Amino acid sequence: MDRKCVNAPKVSVIVPVFNVKPYLKDCLDSILGQTLTDIEVLCGDGGSTDGSLELLREYECRDPRVSVLSKPGSGYGQSVNDCARRARGKYIGIVESDDLIKADMYELLYEEAERKNLDWVRGDIYFYFAPPGKKPVLRYEKIIIGNFYGKVLDPQKDFRPYRSRLRTWSGLYRRSFLEANGITHNETPGAAYQDVGFYLKTLYHARRVAFVRKGLYMWRQDNPASSSHFESASLVEKAFREWDLDREYLRSCQGLSAQAVSGFYYREFLSLLWALDRADGEVRERAGAAIRQRVEQNQQDGRYSRPFFSAREWRQLKRFLKTGETMDVRRKIHLWIRRLIIKSRSFL
Predict the structure, then answer these.
(1) From CA 181, how far away is CA 184, in angstroms rounded?
(2) What is d(CA 128, CA 123) in angstroms, rounded to the nearest whole number?
(3) Calpha distance 274→70 (Å, rounded)
(4) Bridge partners, 122 (sequence order)
(5) Domains, the chain, ranges and CATH?
(6) How far is residue 257's CA from residue 251's CA, in Å, rounded to a whole number?
(7) Neighbours of 226 (CB within 10 A)
(8) Do 113 and 204 touch, CB atoms closer than 8 A?
(9) What is the pLDDT of residues 274-328, one digit of tens each?
(10) Are 208 and 118 in contact (CB under 8 A)?
(11) Element at 23 (helix H, strand E)
């Protein structure tokens, strides 16, 4: 097939890649096997040395829909941004290179976005475990809690979209919407937290968004090199750095609503506590003190808007301010068990 035949695709799929060869074939096959065939796949390689780049080149030669951009030293954010600048699709999707997607993901999301004239749309996900030689295990997760699926929501008036889970890769984004509002990823080194800023910007500027109640994206949990498995000091450091950048963006934007400001501080609180829960020892002690100081200042400044918080989250905020504890005993036990399950499945 002549590459020129793929002219104005409906969807541009961006795949940031760095040393993920054991998982890359499954990822690309799930994208190229979409029931929506009118797509382009832009793979941004950050200088892989494990054979990932060579595998990308093979796919590029076999399928005219695949294009490879190789820039050694580029991090996650820069790779995504470079690919987005070359994208020609009406919508943009992002798939992380160790994950997979269901065959009908982009057809379903594209039709929903077109039918409802959406700025963006996101679907539910699966936690994906694939022990060697065993059948993959999937665990379903809703993208948002509540009866909001299928409804068109306006984040400028409705706080509920801010309560959706931070799963930026589970959706489609109208390219003209992203470009008109200058929505990009932070280009900091590494591959952690750059999607936080992107997530917030899509909420700050969108007027029409929706959620689809169907599991479409499979988020791999057993890749030991995943950013979610970074050692605790690195994870906390990256969290602070990215949230500081996102605060600078918030302050630099003229005309953002009070809703956007409240949404920022709500998401920052939950994210920093998430990072703290994955720290231990001296790192946790230092990070806990710094985060508590920040939360106390935000509380004194009236930054936390009660409607954004569920009853449990509001109790969590009050508990953290009073004791420095991030969760109750029951949730501590749940997190501990989940860590053991993930660790055990990684070595099966």
Answers:
(1) 9
(2) 15
(3) 33
(4) 171, 211
(5) 3-228 (3.90.550.10), 230-346 (no CATH)
(6) 12
(7) 18
(8) no
(9) 889 888 888 888 999 999 999 999 999 999 999 999 999 999 999 999 999 986 4
(10) yes
(11) helix 21-32
